[in-house]
């Protein structure tokens, strides 16, 4: 917080709790600076005669005594100058005066005596295949396959594929005999699978993804033989080698073809490729920090990784699915449609077709998007493809959810409120202080979260015994719940392994896990022991619980239930589930007597690892503070560089990359011959090693990407026991195709940068494709230090994401919205809109849960005949009717945006002044006023939005009067719906659905269902009325004129 923020407070707002301490510290330093400066001036300016003594000896003594005084004062003045730094000084002041702020280790029960070796998380030197000048091109050296023995089935056919020449064994052992399965599963879905013909028990999981882990889409049984009713057609050819085409019958367009390329299939590698049209539009293939439309020179690695949101790199989730949208120009006379690669003529008529492709494979994968083609590679498994015909993005997404991954989980109503979290809250008292500050500054707060600070030495299911006692927690949670608020704690994915030499280090959760055979093993059958926050840890074996005989799910359910008896949480936050381990291999097997151990790196905020980073443009608004922060950051970097240089000097100056070659009959799972472009390089770095073994014998190599998926599965079913009959609320980090049926997702460890505020939009839209409507990010940024402007803009943007949480790391300055008066104001305005829209948002979530609809929508999905929207990812729709156009640029007070559909007559209304937008042409970029504290929001004509008067909590809001916002289209019509239930039950005893229609000056509501709601209708606002109104009736009764108004000015 800069000094302008300290003294620019309005009516005392924006300061409280720790801010008081920080302000006090700053004032102390400023007063000290003035005193020191005045004394220095006095010493130098007063006449020397005033200091003279009667003799020479006395004079010398007086001058000598001045020296330490001067040195002391100069030192104090220097400290004052340092403390002046706006946000750094504010942080420094906190560290001096506040016991609850700072980046000290958050576990207070014990001090680690041992640090895991710093180099324990170092793997082999590898170079990704896509960057390796020595890499072999499979298309050059491999022979491909020939098809034969074609046999028709009830809904398709099968064929044998045999190697067409000498095995190349380029990145694995060639599989010489394959089987092709083609199945027309539905009128809009085609299944194509290529797998080994001969699979035994010993290599089953090398290739087959068990349906008990990931169900496969099934045929509806209604598709006609040979797919005669399907808009997709499969054809194959044997020249020069086997290849296939997938064509859309209705347009004759080839959607995917491997003809002319070679199929490569080995035990640790496969490859197939297809050309793509010029200037293609592909979306999905997550999880990745990238623009919404994937660029045409991108290597998308899919391998779950614990990493702080690098741009374009593989991160937490694995979603091998994409949408391909193609635009056609329509001849106005013949209605013929021709594909256009550059559809820039905004006067022309266009039509789009979207299809989807899903690869059901859990192995590490790499998809190479290049200018004119796509190449798909994987480290194992089968080619198990599902083509979805669409022809719209919405229909593809709906079909994908209904058939492949499951419909999204329905959320409890309260989860749509505002959530506050921080890594660095020190105690229950600290949480109470935060909750009280939200109330003090009149900012709605629904849920307070706790990061790993609450844990007893970072151990799951145990609270710190000093600052987070169960007794104090009970008091805190009783009050919180009585106020209609909620609490969600973090649960990590690794389990502490207690020190066998310390009797006081017992950990019952671990002991019960051993009894349940609940942990992953080494190949020799011993426990696999990695390292995470508590020190040396073991890892729950979800795969072994499904494929083997371990009782991991039962154990996990019991642990959550036991802990709930002590801590009455309302939901669970799952983290580190990629799964992360801070060392390579079973590094703790021989070192358990050193537990509890410190992680092999500095924690954020520890000496030498302070965070002085600020958002882009901070130097323009806070020049002095930015300069000092930069200087301190440079000093830190120099110290680290010196240490690194010393270490580097002791090692070789050249890098020799490890390259492995296939061994007949054996897989090299730790270092497969094909090296994917993995963000950590070696697959074992910062993760459980690929050769770790599950109960039943399967290796981690084949199931790495499923850990996060299965821990969400286990947690969901555990919470069904903890909260019988209630919908579980879970937010998870690592996800797989299908995780959305159990949990929501947050965007992971982002940064307090304007770029990452922008990236939150394409990330959210991508997760709409993946089946996760309950998505949000760490608002204001996780790592680094937010400033007022960024946080104000971000708090307003995130108010229109389904999951809305502010969260940051321990090394950064606190960023609760009440820390800055401008952020307080911006947040209150945005939250008021969000809470008014809660019935609309909840209804949208219900449609996602029951129909596979999306909640956050790309403009191109709703307006699919406007190709200039294909890469629009700085605006989005919340539901079908709310257009959000956030300001994403530092220092800007305007934002450019489009109003889609206006060329076809769509009407947009300003949320704030309720006036219609006029004078805008199709595809026109309009400059919109967006001063700080204002986020442009527009309502789409033709829709009726159910509203409710906002309260301080969702419970309070649900008890308030209803409202309707009727936005008429150009024809004077509108429609909408409202879904109401008890807001929490998994199975509803009664529900209420209301359908609204407006036409010809009449608004009708028709309801169905038995749910009783006693809240009155408070108001109805109709936008776009184009005629004089003389009377208004309600249920055929004329309303008094003082009960309604007509504003003709808008």
Topology diagram in text:
Layout: H1 3-7, H2 18-45, H3 56-83, H4 86-97, E1 114-115, H5 138-141, E2 145-153, E3 156-163, E4 177-186, E5 189-196, H6 204-207, E6 232-237, E7 243-248, E8 253-257, E9 264-266, E10 269-275, E11 281-286, E12 298-302, E13 319-330, E14 337-339, E15 350-359, E16 365-369, E17 373-378, E18 383-388, H7 393-405, E19 418-420, H8 428-440, E20 447-450, E21 455-456, E22 459-463, H9 470-482, E23 486-492, E24 495-496, H10 508-515, E25 530-532, E26 535-538, H11 542-547, H12 552-564, E27 572-575, E28 597-598, H13 618-621, H14 623-649, H15 707-722, E29 730-732, E30 744-746, H16 754-770, E31 775-776, E32 778-779, H17 788-798, E33 804-806, H18 821-836, H19 838-851, E34 856-857, H20 859-862, E35 876-878, E36 882-884, E37 894-897, E38 908-910, E39 926-929, E40 937-940, E41 943-948, H21 954-958, E42 962-967, E43 974-980, E44 992-999, E45 1002-1008, E46 1017-1023, E47 1033-1034, E48 1037-1038
Parallel strand pairs: 1-28, 19-20, 19-33, 20-23, 23-27, 27-29, 29-30, 30-31, 32-33, 42-46
Antiparallel strand pairs: 2-3, 3-4, 4-5, 5-18, 6-7, 7-8, 9-10, 10-17, 11-13, 12-16, 13-14, 13-15, 15-18, 16-17, 21-22, 24-26, 25-26, 34-35, 35-36, 36-40, 37-39, 38-40, 41-42, 43-44, 44-45, 47-48
InterPro entries: Gal_mutarotase_sf_dom, GH, Glyco_hydro_31_AS, Glyco_hydro_31_C, Glyco_hydro_31_TIM, Glyco_hydro_b
Domain Glycosyl hydrolase family 31 C-terminal: 852-945
Enzyme class: hydrolase
């Amino acid at each position: 917080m800069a000094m302008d923020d300290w003294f620019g407070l309005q009516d005392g707002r924006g300061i409280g709790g720790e801010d008081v301490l920080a302000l006090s510290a700053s004032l102390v330093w400023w007063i000290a600076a003035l005193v020191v400066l005045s004394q220095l001036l006095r010493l130098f300016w007063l006449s020397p005669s005033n200091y003279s003594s009667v003799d020479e000896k006395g004079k010398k003594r007086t001058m000598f005594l001045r020296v330490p005084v001067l040195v002391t004062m100069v030192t104090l003045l220097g400290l004052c100058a340092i403390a002046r730094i706006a946000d750094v000084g504010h942080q420094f002041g906190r560290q001096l005066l506040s016991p609850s702020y700072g980046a000290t280790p958050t576990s207070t029960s014990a001090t680690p005596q041992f640090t895991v070796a710093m180099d324990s998380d170092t793997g082999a030197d590898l170079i990704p295949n896509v960057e390796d000048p020595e890499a072999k091109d499979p298309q050059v050296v491999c022979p491909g396959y020939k098809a034969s023995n074609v046999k028709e089935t009830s809904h398709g056919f099968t064929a044998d594929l045999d190697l067409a020449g000498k095995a190349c064994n380029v990145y694995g052992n060639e599989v010489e005999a394959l089987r092709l399965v083609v199945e027309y599963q539905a009128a809009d879905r085609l299944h194509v699978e290529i797998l080994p013909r001969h699979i035994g028990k010993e290599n089953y999981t090398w290739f087959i993804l068990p349906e008990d882990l990931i169900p496969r889409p099934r045929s509806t049984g209604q598709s006609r033989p040979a797919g005669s009713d399907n808009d997709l057609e499969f054809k194959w050819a044997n020249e020069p080698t086997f290849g296939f085409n997938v064509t859309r019958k209705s347009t004759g367009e080839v959607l995917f073809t491997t003809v002319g390329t070679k199929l490569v299939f080995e035990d640790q590698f496969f490859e197939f490729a297809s050309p793509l049209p010029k200037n293609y539009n592909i979306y999905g293939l997550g999880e990745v920090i990238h623009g919404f439309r994937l660029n045409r020179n991108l290597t998308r690695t899919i391998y779950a990784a614990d990493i702080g949101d690098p741009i374009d790199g593989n991160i937490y989730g694995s979603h091998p699915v994409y949408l391909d949208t193609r635009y056609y120009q329509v001849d106005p006379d013949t209605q013929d449609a021709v594909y256009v690669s550059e559809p820039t003529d905004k006067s022309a008529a266009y039509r789009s077709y979207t299809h989807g492709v899903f690869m059901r494979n859990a192995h590490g994968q790499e998809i190479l998007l290049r200018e004119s083609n796509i190449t798909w590679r994987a480290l194992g498994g089968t080619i198990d493809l599902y083509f979805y015909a669409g022809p719209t993005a919405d229909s593809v997404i709906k079909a994908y959810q209904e058939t492949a991954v499951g419909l999204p989980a329905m959320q409890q109503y309260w989860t749509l409120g505002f959530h506050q979290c921080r890594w660095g809250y020190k105690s229950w008292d600290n949480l109470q202080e935060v909750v009280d500050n939200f109330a003090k500054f009149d900012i709605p707060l629904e849920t307070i979260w706790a990061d790993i600070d609450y844990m007893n030495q970072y151990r799951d299911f145990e609270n710190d015994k000093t600052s987070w006692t169960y007794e104090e927690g009970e008091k805190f949670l009783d009050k919180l719940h009585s106020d209609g608020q909620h609490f969600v704690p973090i649960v990590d994915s690794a389990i502490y392994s207690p020190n066998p030499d310390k009797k006081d280090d017992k950990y019952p959760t671990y002991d019960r896990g051993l009894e349940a055979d609940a942990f992953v093993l080494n190949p020799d059958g011993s426990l696999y022991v990695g390292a995470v926050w508590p020190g040396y840890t073991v890892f729950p074996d979800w795969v072994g619980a499904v494929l083997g005989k371990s009782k991991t799910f039962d154990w996990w359910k019991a642990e959550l239930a036991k802990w709930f008896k002590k801590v009455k949480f309302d939901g669970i936050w799952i983290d580190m589930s990629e799964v992360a381990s801070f060392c390579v291999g079973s590094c703790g097997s021989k070192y358990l007597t050193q537990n509890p151990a410190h992680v092999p790196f500095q924690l954020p905020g520890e000496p030498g690892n302070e965070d002085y980073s600020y958002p882009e443009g901070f130097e323009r608004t806070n020049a002095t503070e930015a300069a000092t922060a930069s200087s301190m950051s440079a000093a830190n970097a120099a110290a680290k560089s010196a240490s690194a240089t010393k270490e580097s000097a002791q090692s070789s100056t050249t890098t020799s990359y490890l390259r492995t070659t296939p061994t007949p009959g054996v897989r090299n799972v730790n270092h497969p011959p094909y090296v994917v472009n993995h963000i950590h390089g070696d697959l074992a770095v910062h993760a459980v090693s690929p050769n770790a073994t599950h109960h039943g014998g399967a290796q981690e190599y084949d199931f790495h990407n499923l850990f996060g998926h299965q821990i969400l599965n286990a947690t969901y079913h555990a919470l069904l026991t903890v909260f019988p009959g209630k919908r579980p609320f879970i937010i998870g980090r690592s996800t797989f195709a299908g995780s959305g049926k159990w949990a929501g997702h947050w965007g992971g460890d982002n940064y307090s940068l304007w770029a990452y505020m922008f990236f939150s939009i394409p990330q959210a839209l991508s997760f709409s494709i993946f089946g996760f409507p309950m998505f949000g990010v760490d608002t204001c940024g996780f790592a680094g230090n937010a400033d007022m402007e960024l946080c104000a803009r971000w708090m307003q943007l995130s108010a229109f994401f389904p999951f809305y949480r502010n969260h940051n790391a321990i090394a950064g300055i606190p960023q609760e919205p009440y820390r800055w008066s401008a952020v307080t104001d911006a947040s209150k305005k945005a939250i008021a809109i969000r809470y008014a829209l809660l019935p609309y948002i909840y209804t949208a979530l219900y449609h996602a849960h029951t129909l596979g609809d999306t909640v956050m929508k790309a403009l191109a999905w709703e307006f699919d005949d406007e190709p200039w929207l294909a890469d629009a990812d700085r605006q989005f729709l919340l539901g079908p009717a709310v257009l959000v156009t956030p300001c994403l640029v530092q220092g800007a007070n305007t934002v450019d945006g489009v109003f889609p559909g206006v060329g076809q007559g769509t009407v947009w209304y300003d949320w704030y002044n309720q006036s219609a937008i006029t004078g805008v042409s199709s595809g026109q970029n309009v400059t919109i006023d967006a001063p700080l504290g204002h986020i442009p929001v527009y309502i789409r004509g033709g829709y009726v939005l159910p509203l409710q008067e906002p309260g301080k909590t969702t419970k309070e809001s649900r008890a308030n009067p209803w409202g309707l916002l009727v936005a008429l289209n150009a024809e004077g019509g509108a429609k909408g719906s409202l879904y109401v239930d008890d807001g929490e039950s998994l199975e509803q005893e009664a529900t209420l659905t209301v359908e609204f229609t407006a036409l010809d000056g009449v608004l009708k509501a028709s309801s169905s269902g038995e749910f009783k709601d006693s809240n009155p209708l408070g108001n109805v606002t109709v936008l776009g009325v184009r005629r004089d109104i003389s009377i208004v009736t309600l249920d055929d009764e004329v309303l008094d004129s003082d009960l309604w108004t007509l504003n003709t000015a808008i």
